[in-house]
Amino acid sequence: MSARISAKSLRYLIVIGLIALWELLPRAGLIPELFLPSLSSTLIAGWTDAGEYGHALAVTLYEVVVSMAFACGGGILLGAIVGSLPRPRILIMPMVSSLYAVPLVILYPVFTVWLGIGSESKIAFASIYGFLPTMLATAAGIQTIDPQLLLAARSMGATLSQRLVRVIIPAAIPTVLSGLRVGGALVIVGVVVSEMLISSAGIGYLISRYRTILDSPHVFAGVLLVLFLAIGFNAVIRWIEGKAAIWQTGTRAGQANDEIAVNAMQPAT
Amino acid sequence: MQPLANVTQLKPAARAGAIEVKNVGQVFKTRSQDVVALEDVSLEVKPGRFVVLVGPSGCGKSTLLMMMAGLRQQTAGTITISGAPILQPDPDRVGVVFQEASLFPWLTAEDNVEFPLALRGVPKAERRAKAQDALKLVGLDGFGRRHPHELSGGMKQRVSIARGLVQDPPVLLMDEPFAALDEQTRMTMGDELLRIWAATGKTVVFVTHSLTEAVYLADEVIVMSARPGRIVDHLQVQLPRPRTYEMLSGDAFGSLRDRIWRHIRKSA
Protein backbone atom coordinates (compact mmCIF):
# COMPACT_ATOMS: atom_id res chain seq x y z
CA MET A 1 0.00 0.00 0.00
CA SER A 2 2.70 2.48 0.97
CA ALA A 3 4.66 1.64 -2.19
CA ARG A 4 1.62 2.46 -4.31
CA ILE A 5 1.06 5.81 -2.59
CA SER A 6 4.68 6.81 -3.01
CA ALA A 7 4.53 5.84 -6.70
CA LYS A 8 1.48 8.04 -7.05
CA SER A 9 3.09 11.00 -5.30
CA LEU A 10 6.20 10.43 -7.37
CA ARG A 11 4.05 10.75 -10.48
CA TYR A 12 2.64 14.04 -9.19
CA LEU A 13 6.14 15.25 -8.40
CA ILE A 14 7.29 14.47 -11.93
CA VAL A 15 4.33 16.33 -13.44
CA ILE A 16 4.89 19.33 -11.16
CA GLY A 17 8.60 19.26 -11.96
CA LEU A 18 7.94 19.25 -15.71
CA ILE A 19 5.51 22.17 -15.35
CA ALA A 20 8.08 24.08 -13.33
CA LEU A 21 10.76 23.36 -15.95
CA TRP A 22 8.38 24.53 -18.67
CA GLU A 23 8.15 27.86 -16.91
CA LEU A 24 11.76 28.20 -15.76
CA LEU A 25 13.85 27.00 -18.71
CA PRO A 26 12.52 29.51 -21.27
CA ARG A 27 12.55 32.31 -18.66
CA ALA A 28 16.17 31.62 -17.83
CA GLY A 29 16.94 31.84 -21.53
CA LEU A 30 18.15 28.24 -21.71
CA ILE A 31 15.55 27.48 -24.40
CA PRO A 32 14.57 30.14 -26.98
CA GLU A 33 10.94 31.26 -26.58
CA LEU A 34 10.39 30.37 -30.25
CA PHE A 35 11.04 26.69 -29.52
CA LEU A 36 9.31 26.55 -26.16
CA PRO A 37 7.43 29.58 -24.85
CA SER A 38 7.14 29.67 -21.08
CA LEU A 39 3.97 28.32 -19.50
CA SER A 40 2.88 31.79 -18.40
CA SER A 41 3.19 33.35 -21.86
CA THR A 42 1.33 30.34 -23.30
CA LEU A 43 -1.50 30.81 -20.83
CA ILE A 44 -1.60 34.54 -21.46
CA ALA A 45 -1.77 33.95 -25.22
CA GLY A 46 -4.63 31.52 -24.72
CA TRP A 47 -6.43 33.85 -22.33
CA THR A 48 -6.23 36.95 -24.54
CA ASP A 49 -7.71 35.03 -27.45
CA ALA A 50 -10.04 32.91 -25.31
CA GLY A 51 -12.96 33.52 -27.68
CA GLU A 52 -11.06 32.18 -30.65
CA TYR A 53 -9.86 29.12 -28.74
CA GLY A 54 -13.31 28.53 -27.30
CA HIS A 55 -14.82 28.49 -30.75
CA ALA A 56 -12.07 26.19 -32.01
CA LEU A 57 -12.58 23.86 -29.05
CA ALA A 58 -16.32 23.74 -29.74
CA VAL A 59 -15.68 22.77 -33.37
CA THR A 60 -13.14 20.12 -32.41
CA LEU A 61 -15.31 18.72 -29.63
CA TYR A 62 -18.27 18.47 -31.97
CA GLU A 63 -16.18 16.59 -34.52
CA VAL A 64 -14.74 14.30 -31.84
CA VAL A 65 -18.12 13.46 -30.34
CA VAL A 66 -19.76 12.70 -33.69
CA SER A 67 -16.75 10.68 -34.87
CA MET A 68 -16.74 8.68 -31.63
CA ALA A 69 -20.41 7.89 -32.04
CA PHE A 70 -19.71 6.56 -35.54
CA ALA A 71 -16.44 4.82 -34.70
CA CYS A 72 -17.60 3.23 -31.47
CA GLY A 73 -21.16 2.48 -32.48
CA GLY A 74 -20.16 1.07 -35.84
CA GLY A 75 -17.11 -0.68 -34.42
CA ILE A 76 -19.08 -2.41 -31.66
CA LEU A 77 -21.92 -3.39 -33.99
CA LEU A 78 -19.73 -4.77 -36.75
CA GLY A 79 -17.30 -6.29 -34.26
CA ALA A 80 -20.18 -8.13 -32.60
CA ILE A 81 -21.36 -9.49 -35.95
CA VAL A 82 -17.89 -10.46 -37.10
CA GLY A 83 -17.02 -11.95 -33.72
CA SER A 84 -20.11 -14.10 -33.39
CA LEU A 85 -20.46 -15.45 -36.92
CA PRO A 86 -17.68 -17.60 -38.35
CA ARG A 87 -18.19 -16.79 -42.04
CA PRO A 88 -17.85 -12.98 -41.85
CA ARG A 89 -14.92 -13.54 -39.55
CA ILE A 90 -13.05 -15.58 -42.14
CA LEU A 91 -13.96 -13.10 -44.88
CA ILE A 92 -13.38 -9.81 -43.13
CA MET A 93 -10.81 -10.27 -40.37
CA PRO A 94 -7.73 -10.74 -42.59
CA MET A 95 -8.69 -7.67 -44.62
CA VAL A 96 -9.26 -5.57 -41.53
CA SER A 97 -6.04 -6.70 -39.91
CA SER A 98 -3.92 -5.79 -42.93
CA LEU A 99 -5.81 -2.52 -43.36
CA TYR A 100 -4.83 -1.70 -39.82
CA ALA A 101 -1.20 -1.31 -40.86
CA VAL A 102 -1.98 1.19 -43.64
CA PRO A 103 -1.45 4.85 -42.63
CA LEU A 104 -5.03 5.91 -43.22
CA VAL A 105 -4.07 9.55 -43.26
CA ILE A 106 -3.25 9.11 -46.95
CA LEU A 107 -7.01 8.92 -47.49
CA TYR A 108 -7.67 12.30 -45.93
CA PRO A 109 -6.99 14.42 -49.05
CA VAL A 110 -9.50 12.21 -50.87
CA PHE A 111 -12.10 12.90 -48.20
CA THR A 112 -11.61 16.65 -48.56
CA VAL A 113 -12.29 16.28 -52.28
CA TRP A 114 -15.44 14.30 -51.59
CA LEU A 115 -16.75 16.13 -48.54
CA GLY A 116 -15.10 19.55 -48.55
CA ILE A 117 -12.80 21.06 -45.95
CA GLY A 118 -15.49 21.47 -43.27
CA SER A 119 -16.29 19.18 -40.36
CA GLU A 120 -17.63 16.40 -42.58
CA SER A 121 -14.27 15.31 -43.93
CA LYS A 122 -12.76 15.33 -40.42
CA ILE A 123 -15.60 13.27 -39.07
CA ALA A 124 -15.34 10.76 -41.91
CA PHE A 125 -11.60 10.40 -41.49
CA ALA A 126 -11.57 10.21 -37.67
CA SER A 127 -14.49 7.76 -37.66
CA ILE A 128 -12.67 5.32 -39.90
CA TYR A 129 -9.46 5.87 -37.97
CA GLY A 130 -11.06 4.99 -34.61
CA PHE A 131 -13.40 2.36 -36.01
CA LEU A 132 -10.85 -0.37 -36.68
CA PRO A 133 -9.45 -0.96 -33.18
CA THR A 134 -12.93 -0.78 -31.65
CA MET A 135 -14.19 -3.36 -34.10
CA LEU A 136 -11.18 -5.65 -33.62
CA ALA A 137 -11.48 -5.46 -29.83
CA THR A 138 -15.21 -6.17 -29.88
CA ALA A 139 -14.76 -9.13 -32.20
CA ALA A 140 -12.01 -10.47 -29.94
CA GLY A 141 -14.13 -9.84 -26.85
CA ILE A 142 -17.02 -11.84 -28.23
CA GLN A 143 -14.83 -14.65 -29.47
CA THR A 144 -13.17 -15.11 -26.12
CA ILE A 145 -16.38 -15.50 -24.09
CA ASP A 146 -16.15 -18.70 -22.08
CA PRO A 147 -18.42 -21.20 -23.90
CA GLN A 148 -19.24 -22.77 -20.51
CA LEU A 149 -21.12 -19.60 -19.58
CA LEU A 150 -23.30 -19.86 -22.66
CA LEU A 151 -23.86 -23.56 -22.05
CA ALA A 152 -24.83 -22.86 -18.43
CA ALA A 153 -27.26 -20.15 -19.55
CA ARG A 154 -28.78 -22.53 -22.07
CA SER A 155 -29.19 -25.22 -19.41
CA MET A 156 -31.22 -22.73 -17.41
CA GLY A 157 -33.53 -22.20 -20.34
CA ALA A 158 -32.13 -18.91 -21.68
CA THR A 159 -33.39 -18.00 -25.15
CA LEU A 160 -31.07 -16.62 -27.81
CA SER A 161 -31.95 -13.00 -27.02
CA GLN A 162 -31.61 -13.62 -23.27
CA ARG A 163 -28.19 -15.08 -23.86
CA LEU A 164 -27.22 -12.02 -25.89
CA VAL A 165 -28.45 -9.48 -23.34
CA ARG A 166 -27.59 -11.31 -20.12
CA VAL A 167 -24.41 -13.19 -21.04
CA ILE A 168 -22.70 -12.12 -24.25
CA ILE A 169 -22.92 -8.35 -23.76
CA PRO A 170 -21.84 -8.25 -20.10
CA ALA A 171 -19.08 -10.76 -20.77
CA ALA A 172 -17.74 -8.68 -23.69
CA ILE A 173 -17.84 -5.32 -21.91
CA PRO A 174 -14.26 -5.28 -20.54
CA THR A 175 -12.71 -6.06 -23.92
CA VAL A 176 -14.99 -3.63 -25.72
CA LEU A 177 -14.01 -0.90 -23.25
CA SER A 178 -10.33 -1.45 -23.93
CA GLY A 179 -11.16 -1.15 -27.62
CA LEU A 180 -13.04 2.09 -26.95
CA ARG A 181 -10.03 3.45 -25.12
CA VAL A 182 -7.78 2.91 -28.14
CA GLY A 183 -10.47 3.81 -30.67
CA GLY A 184 -11.45 6.99 -28.85
CA ALA A 185 -7.85 8.12 -28.56
CA LEU A 186 -7.39 7.56 -32.29
CA VAL A 187 -10.54 9.59 -32.99
CA ILE A 188 -8.98 12.56 -31.18
CA VAL A 189 -5.76 12.07 -33.13
CA GLY A 190 -7.70 11.79 -36.38
CA VAL A 191 -9.70 14.96 -35.80
CA VAL A 192 -6.74 17.10 -34.75
CA VAL A 193 -4.42 15.82 -37.48
CA SER A 194 -6.99 16.36 -40.20
CA GLU A 195 -7.67 19.85 -38.88
CA MET A 196 -3.98 20.59 -39.09
CA LEU A 197 -3.72 19.34 -42.66
CA ILE A 198 -6.56 20.97 -44.58
CA SER A 199 -9.30 22.90 -42.79
CA SER A 200 -10.82 26.22 -41.76
CA ALA A 201 -11.64 25.69 -38.08
CA GLY A 202 -10.80 23.73 -34.94
CA ILE A 203 -7.86 23.52 -32.57
CA GLY A 204 -5.67 21.71 -35.09
CA TYR A 205 -6.35 24.50 -37.57
CA LEU A 206 -5.36 27.14 -35.00
CA ILE A 207 -2.14 25.32 -34.12
CA SER A 208 -1.26 24.99 -37.76
CA ARG A 209 -2.09 28.65 -38.57
CA TYR A 210 -0.13 30.12 -35.65
CA ARG A 211 2.78 27.87 -36.53
CA THR A 212 3.03 29.42 -40.01
CA ILE A 213 3.37 32.87 -38.45
CA LEU A 214 5.84 31.55 -35.82
CA ASP A 215 3.60 32.57 -32.91
CA SER A 216 4.81 29.92 -30.46
CA PRO A 217 2.74 30.90 -27.38
CA HIS A 218 -0.46 30.57 -29.42
CA VAL A 219 0.71 27.23 -30.87
CA PHE A 220 1.35 25.86 -27.41
CA ALA A 221 -1.96 27.17 -26.11
CA GLY A 222 -3.60 24.93 -28.74
CA VAL A 223 -1.35 22.02 -27.79
CA LEU A 224 -2.39 22.48 -24.17
CA LEU A 225 -6.07 22.34 -25.15
CA VAL A 226 -5.57 19.06 -27.05
CA LEU A 227 -3.75 17.70 -24.03
CA PHE A 228 -6.71 18.53 -21.80
CA LEU A 229 -9.07 16.97 -24.30
CA ALA A 230 -7.11 13.71 -24.20
CA ILE A 231 -6.88 13.72 -20.40
CA GLY A 232 -10.60 14.40 -20.15
CA PHE A 233 -11.37 11.52 -22.49
CA ASN A 234 -9.15 9.20 -20.47
CA ALA A 235 -10.95 10.20 -17.27
CA VAL A 236 -14.33 9.44 -18.82
CA ILE A 237 -13.19 6.00 -20.00
CA ARG A 238 -11.76 5.25 -16.57
CA TRP A 239 -15.01 6.23 -14.94
CA ILE A 240 -16.96 3.92 -17.25
CA GLU A 241 -14.50 1.10 -16.65
CA GLY A 242 -14.87 1.56 -12.91
CA LYS A 243 -18.64 1.35 -13.24
CA ALA A 244 -18.85 -1.54 -15.67
CA ALA A 245 -16.02 -3.85 -14.82
CA ILE A 246 -15.98 -4.13 -11.05
CA TRP A 247 -16.11 -7.88 -11.42
CA GLN A 248 -12.90 -8.21 -13.34
CA THR A 249 -10.30 -10.07 -11.36
CA GLY A 250 -6.77 -8.81 -11.60
CA THR A 251 -7.88 -5.22 -11.23
CA ARG A 252 -6.78 -3.39 -8.15
CA ALA A 253 -10.27 -3.54 -6.70
CA GLY A 254 -10.41 -7.28 -7.36
CA GLN A 255 -7.17 -7.92 -5.51
CA ALA A 256 -8.31 -5.95 -2.49
CA ASN A 257 -11.51 -7.97 -2.42
CA ASP A 258 -9.59 -11.24 -2.66
CA GLU A 259 -7.84 -10.38 0.59
CA ILE A 260 -11.20 -9.86 2.26
CA ALA A 261 -12.43 -13.18 0.88
CA VAL A 262 -9.47 -15.07 2.34
CA ASN A 263 -10.11 -13.62 5.78
CA ALA A 264 -13.79 -14.47 5.76
CA MET A 265 -13.59 -17.94 4.36
CA GLN A 266 -13.85 -20.14 7.43
CA PRO A 267 -17.54 -21.08 7.35
CA ALA A 268 -17.28 -22.82 3.97
CA THR A 269 -14.51 -25.19 2.94
CA MET B 1 -41.95 -53.24 -17.97
CA GLN B 2 -45.00 -52.79 -20.20
CA PRO B 3 -47.53 -51.84 -17.49
CA LEU B 4 -45.03 -49.44 -15.99
CA ALA B 5 -44.64 -47.65 -19.33
CA ASN B 6 -48.40 -47.18 -19.44
CA VAL B 7 -48.40 -45.70 -15.98
CA THR B 8 -45.74 -43.16 -16.94
CA GLN B 9 -47.80 -42.06 -19.90
CA LEU B 10 -50.81 -41.52 -17.71
CA LYS B 11 -49.20 -39.97 -14.67
CA PRO B 12 -45.79 -38.45 -15.32
CA ALA B 13 -45.81 -36.70 -11.95
CA ALA B 14 -45.85 -40.04 -10.20
CA ARG B 15 -42.39 -40.74 -11.61
CA ALA B 16 -40.87 -37.36 -10.85
CA GLY B 17 -37.11 -37.69 -10.80
CA ALA B 18 -36.94 -40.95 -12.74
CA ILE B 19 -34.52 -41.07 -15.66
CA GLU B 20 -34.80 -43.52 -18.51
CA VAL B 21 -32.16 -43.78 -21.21
CA LYS B 22 -33.11 -46.18 -24.00
CA ASN B 23 -30.78 -47.36 -26.77
CA VAL B 24 -29.15 -43.97 -26.98
CA GLY B 25 -26.42 -43.34 -29.52
CA GLN B 26 -24.43 -40.31 -30.54
CA VAL B 27 -22.49 -39.96 -33.76
CA PHE B 28 -20.35 -36.90 -34.44
CA LYS B 29 -20.03 -36.19 -38.13
CA THR B 30 -16.70 -34.77 -39.15
CA ARG B 31 -15.56 -34.06 -42.68
CA SER B 32 -13.49 -37.21 -43.04
CA GLN B 33 -15.44 -39.71 -40.95
CA ASP B 34 -18.24 -40.33 -38.51
CA VAL B 35 -17.13 -40.76 -34.92
CA VAL B 36 -19.34 -42.95 -32.77
CA ALA B 37 -19.21 -41.35 -29.32
CA LEU B 38 -21.96 -43.40 -27.71
CA GLU B 39 -23.46 -46.68 -28.82
CA ASP B 40 -26.65 -48.28 -27.61
CA VAL B 41 -26.59 -46.93 -24.07
CA SER B 42 -29.53 -47.87 -21.89
CA LEU B 43 -29.96 -47.23 -18.20
CA GLU B 44 -32.63 -46.51 -15.69
CA VAL B 45 -32.31 -44.32 -12.63
CA LYS B 46 -34.95 -44.53 -9.95
CA PRO B 47 -36.11 -41.34 -8.22
CA GLY B 48 -33.86 -40.17 -5.41
CA ARG B 49 -30.87 -42.31 -6.36
CA PHE B 50 -27.30 -41.05 -6.47
CA VAL B 51 -25.74 -42.41 -9.66
CA VAL B 52 -22.16 -41.80 -10.74
CA LEU B 53 -20.88 -42.15 -14.32
CA VAL B 54 -17.21 -43.05 -14.64
CA GLY B 55 -15.04 -44.06 -17.55
CA PRO B 56 -11.86 -43.17 -19.39
CA SER B 57 -11.50 -39.81 -21.11
CA GLY B 58 -13.52 -39.68 -24.29
CA CYS B 59 -15.98 -42.37 -23.23
CA GLY B 60 -18.87 -39.98 -23.76
CA LYS B 61 -19.98 -39.73 -20.13
CA SER B 62 -20.19 -35.95 -20.30
CA THR B 63 -21.92 -36.21 -23.66
CA LEU B 64 -24.50 -38.49 -22.10
CA LEU B 65 -25.02 -36.02 -19.28
CA MET B 66 -25.42 -33.14 -21.75
CA MET B 67 -28.08 -35.14 -23.56
CA MET B 68 -29.92 -35.78 -20.29
CA ALA B 69 -29.81 -32.02 -19.75
CA GLY B 70 -31.33 -31.40 -23.18
CA LEU B 71 -28.23 -29.47 -24.23
CA ARG B 72 -27.42 -31.88 -27.01
CA GLN B 73 -29.60 -34.18 -29.08
CA GLN B 74 -28.79 -37.86 -29.36
CA THR B 75 -28.68 -39.35 -32.85
CA ALA B 76 -30.49 -42.50 -31.73
CA GLY B 77 -32.74 -43.62 -28.88
CA THR B 78 -34.79 -41.73 -26.33
CA ILE B 79 -34.20 -40.10 -22.95
CA THR B 80 -37.10 -39.45 -20.64
CA ILE B 81 -37.00 -37.60 -17.35
CA SER B 82 -39.94 -37.66 -14.94
CA GLY B 83 -41.77 -39.68 -17.56
CA ALA B 84 -41.52 -37.25 -20.49
CA PRO B 85 -38.88 -37.05 -23.21
CA ILE B 86 -36.27 -34.36 -22.82
CA LEU B 87 -35.82 -32.48 -26.09
CA GLN B 88 -34.43 -29.18 -24.86
CA PRO B 89 -33.18 -27.73 -21.55
CA ASP B 90 -35.99 -27.76 -19.03
CA PRO B 91 -34.93 -26.18 -15.73
CA ASP B 92 -38.18 -27.26 -14.12
CA ARG B 93 -37.18 -30.89 -14.47
CA VAL B 94 -33.39 -30.79 -14.58
CA GLY B 95 -30.81 -28.63 -12.84
CA VAL B 96 -27.25 -28.74 -14.17
CA VAL B 97 -24.02 -28.05 -12.30
CA PHE B 98 -20.92 -27.51 -14.44
CA GLN B 99 -17.26 -27.13 -13.67
CA GLU B 100 -16.10 -24.13 -11.69
CA ALA B 101 -15.98 -21.66 -14.56
CA SER B 102 -19.71 -21.44 -15.17
CA LEU B 103 -20.70 -18.70 -12.68
CA PHE B 104 -21.27 -15.30 -14.25
CA PRO B 105 -18.38 -13.24 -12.90
CA TRP B 106 -20.23 -9.92 -13.18
CA LEU B 107 -23.08 -11.07 -10.94
CA THR B 108 -23.04 -11.51 -7.17
CA ALA B 109 -23.57 -14.97 -5.73
CA GLU B 110 -27.26 -14.31 -5.11
CA ASP B 111 -27.76 -12.81 -8.56
CA ASN B 112 -26.12 -15.90 -10.01
CA VAL B 113 -28.49 -18.14 -8.07
CA GLU B 114 -31.44 -15.98 -9.14
CA PHE B 115 -30.40 -16.05 -12.79
CA PRO B 116 -32.61 -18.96 -13.90
CA LEU B 117 -35.58 -17.37 -12.10
CA ALA B 118 -34.87 -13.98 -13.66
CA LEU B 119 -34.92 -15.62 -17.09
CA ARG B 120 -38.52 -16.60 -16.49
CA GLY B 121 -39.61 -13.27 -15.08
CA VAL B 122 -40.13 -14.37 -11.48
CA PRO B 123 -40.76 -11.23 -9.35
CA LYS B 124 -37.75 -9.83 -7.54
CA ALA B 125 -38.92 -10.49 -3.99
CA GLU B 126 -39.78 -14.12 -4.68
CA ARG B 127 -36.50 -14.58 -6.52
CA ARG B 128 -34.51 -13.19 -3.63
CA ALA B 129 -36.31 -15.37 -1.09
CA LYS B 130 -35.69 -18.53 -3.11
CA ALA B 131 -32.05 -17.65 -3.68
CA GLN B 132 -31.57 -17.05 0.04
CA ASP B 133 -33.07 -20.45 0.81
CA ALA B 134 -30.85 -22.15 -1.76
CA LEU B 135 -27.74 -20.39 -0.46
CA LYS B 136 -28.64 -21.37 3.08
CA LEU B 137 -29.07 -24.97 1.98
CA VAL B 138 -25.54 -25.10 0.53
CA GLY B 139 -24.06 -23.41 3.61
CA LEU B 140 -23.43 -19.97 2.11
CA ASP B 141 -25.79 -17.94 4.24
CA GLY B 142 -24.50 -14.38 4.33
CA PHE B 143 -22.25 -14.68 1.28
CA GLY B 144 -24.88 -13.61 -1.26
CA ARG B 145 -23.36 -10.21 -1.93
CA ARG B 146 -19.96 -11.56 -2.93
CA HIS B 147 -18.84 -11.73 -6.53
CA PRO B 148 -17.41 -15.07 -7.71
CA HIS B 149 -13.81 -13.79 -7.61
CA GLU B 150 -14.30 -13.07 -3.91
CA LEU B 151 -15.17 -16.71 -3.22
CA SER B 152 -12.94 -19.77 -2.90
CA GLY B 153 -13.22 -22.62 -5.39
CA GLY B 154 -15.36 -24.69 -3.05
CA MET B 155 -17.68 -21.77 -2.34
CA LYS B 156 -18.11 -21.10 -6.05
CA GLN B 157 -19.15 -24.68 -6.55
CA ARG B 158 -21.64 -24.33 -3.69
CA VAL B 159 -23.13 -21.35 -5.50
CA SER B 160 -23.39 -23.47 -8.67
CA ILE B 161 -25.22 -26.17 -6.73
CA ALA B 162 -27.54 -23.57 -5.23
CA ARG B 163 -28.22 -22.28 -8.74
CA GLY B 164 -28.99 -25.81 -9.92
CA LEU B 165 -31.41 -26.34 -7.03
CA VAL B 166 -33.14 -22.95 -6.94
CA GLN B 167 -36.03 -24.04 -9.18
CA ASP B 168 -36.39 -27.24 -7.16
CA PRO B 169 -36.06 -29.67 -10.09
CA PRO B 170 -36.32 -33.36 -9.16
CA VAL B 171 -33.09 -34.15 -11.03
CA LEU B 172 -29.64 -32.66 -10.56
CA LEU B 173 -26.99 -33.40 -13.21
CA MET B 174 -23.38 -32.70 -12.26
CA ASP B 175 -20.55 -32.65 -14.79
CA GLU B 176 -17.26 -33.13 -12.93
CA PRO B 177 -18.24 -30.39 -10.50
CA PHE B 178 -15.27 -30.85 -8.18
CA ALA B 179 -12.58 -31.56 -10.78
CA ALA B 180 -10.94 -28.16 -10.36
CA LEU B 181 -10.79 -28.33 -6.56
CA ASP B 182 -7.88 -29.42 -4.41
CA GLU B 183 -8.15 -32.79 -2.71
CA GLN B 184 -9.17 -31.60 0.76
CA THR B 185 -11.82 -29.24 -0.57
CA ARG B 186 -13.01 -32.03 -2.80
CA MET B 187 -13.53 -34.38 0.14
CA THR B 188 -15.40 -31.71 2.08
CA MET B 189 -17.56 -30.89 -0.90
CA GLY B 190 -18.37 -34.57 -1.38
CA ASP B 191 -19.69 -34.76 2.18
CA GLU B 192 -21.57 -31.50 1.68
CA LEU B 193 -23.15 -32.78 -1.50
CA LEU B 194 -24.29 -35.95 0.25
CA ARG B 195 -25.80 -33.83 3.03
CA ILE B 196 -27.65 -31.65 0.50
CA TRP B 197 -28.75 -34.72 -1.42
CA ALA B 198 -30.09 -36.36 1.74
CA ALA B 199 -31.90 -33.15 2.68
CA THR B 200 -33.55 -32.64 -0.72
CA GLY B 201 -34.11 -36.18 -2.00
CA LYS B 202 -33.04 -35.27 -5.54
CA THR B 203 -32.05 -37.77 -8.18
CA VAL B 204 -28.37 -37.05 -8.82
CA VAL B 205 -26.34 -38.09 -11.84
CA PHE B 206 -22.71 -37.24 -11.26
CA VAL B 207 -19.85 -37.51 -13.76
CA THR B 208 -16.32 -37.85 -12.43
CA HIS B 209 -12.83 -39.07 -13.24
CA SER B 210 -12.12 -40.04 -9.65
CA LEU B 211 -12.88 -43.64 -8.76
CA THR B 212 -12.66 -42.91 -5.04
CA GLU B 213 -15.14 -40.09 -5.39
CA ALA B 214 -17.40 -42.35 -7.44
CA VAL B 215 -17.58 -45.13 -4.86
CA TYR B 216 -17.71 -42.72 -1.92
CA LEU B 217 -20.71 -40.81 -3.23
CA ALA B 218 -22.74 -43.30 -5.18
CA ASP B 219 -25.66 -45.65 -4.69
CA GLU B 220 -24.81 -46.98 -8.14
CA VAL B 221 -21.72 -46.60 -10.30
CA ILE B 222 -22.07 -46.92 -14.08
CA VAL B 223 -18.79 -47.71 -15.81
CA MET B 224 -18.36 -46.78 -19.44
CA SER B 225 -15.80 -47.90 -22.01
CA ALA B 226 -13.70 -45.74 -24.29
CA ARG B 227 -14.99 -44.72 -27.71
CA PRO B 228 -17.46 -45.89 -28.74
CA GLY B 229 -18.91 -45.31 -25.28
CA ARG B 230 -20.86 -48.26 -23.94
CA ILE B 231 -21.92 -49.28 -20.47
CA VAL B 232 -19.61 -52.10 -19.37
CA ASP B 233 -20.65 -52.41 -15.75
CA HIS B 234 -23.34 -51.23 -13.37
CA LEU B 235 -22.35 -51.60 -9.72
CA GLN B 236 -24.53 -51.29 -6.66
CA VAL B 237 -22.63 -49.67 -3.80
CA GLN B 238 -24.02 -51.28 -0.67
CA LEU B 239 -21.94 -49.28 1.81
CA PRO B 240 -24.08 -47.83 4.60
CA ARG B 241 -24.89 -44.15 4.81
CA PRO B 242 -23.76 -41.73 6.02
CA ARG B 243 -20.49 -42.49 4.31
CA THR B 244 -17.42 -41.87 6.41
CA TYR B 245 -13.77 -41.28 5.75
CA GLU B 246 -12.90 -44.61 7.45
CA MET B 247 -14.77 -46.55 4.75
CA LEU B 248 -12.19 -45.42 2.19
CA SER B 249 -9.67 -47.87 3.61
CA GLY B 250 -12.13 -50.73 4.07
CA ASP B 251 -12.16 -53.94 2.01
CA ALA B 252 -15.63 -53.37 0.56
CA PHE B 253 -14.61 -49.96 -0.71
CA GLY B 254 -11.34 -51.24 -2.11
CA SER B 255 -12.86 -54.14 -4.01
CA LEU B 256 -15.45 -51.89 -5.65
CA ARG B 257 -12.78 -49.44 -6.69
CA ASP B 258 -10.60 -52.26 -8.05
CA ARG B 259 -13.48 -53.64 -10.06
CA ILE B 260 -14.06 -50.25 -11.71
CA TRP B 261 -10.35 -49.76 -12.31
CA ARG B 262 -10.02 -53.12 -14.10
CA HIS B 263 -12.74 -52.07 -16.56
CA ILE B 264 -11.13 -48.74 -17.21
CA ARG B 265 -7.64 -50.13 -17.63
CA LYS B 266 -8.96 -52.64 -20.13
CA SER B 267 -10.55 -50.05 -22.36
CA ALA B 268 -8.01 -47.23 -22.01
From TrEMBL, chain B:
Species this protein is from: Bradyrhizobium symbiodeficiens
PANTHER family, per database record: ALIPHATIC SULFONATES IMPORT ATP-BINDING PROTEIN SSUB (PTHR42788:SF13), TAURINE IMPORT ATP-BINDING PROTEIN-RELATED (PTHR42788)
One MF annotation (Gene Ontology) recorded for this entry: ATP binding
Protein name, UniProt field: ABC transporter ATP-binding protein
Alphabetical keyword list: ATP-binding, Nucleotide-binding, Transport
Transport recorded as keyword: yes
GO biological process assignments: quaternary ammonium group transport
Domain ABC transporter: 19-251
Keyword DNA repair (UniProt): no
Family to which the UniProt record says this protein belongs: Belongs to the ABC transporter superfamily.
InterPro entries assigned to the protein according to its UniProt record, in alphabetical order: AAA+_ATPase (IPR003593), ABC_transporter-like_ATP-bd (IPR003439), ABC_transporter-like_CS (IPR017871), ABC_transporter_ATP-bind (IPR050166), P-loop_NTPase (IPR027417)
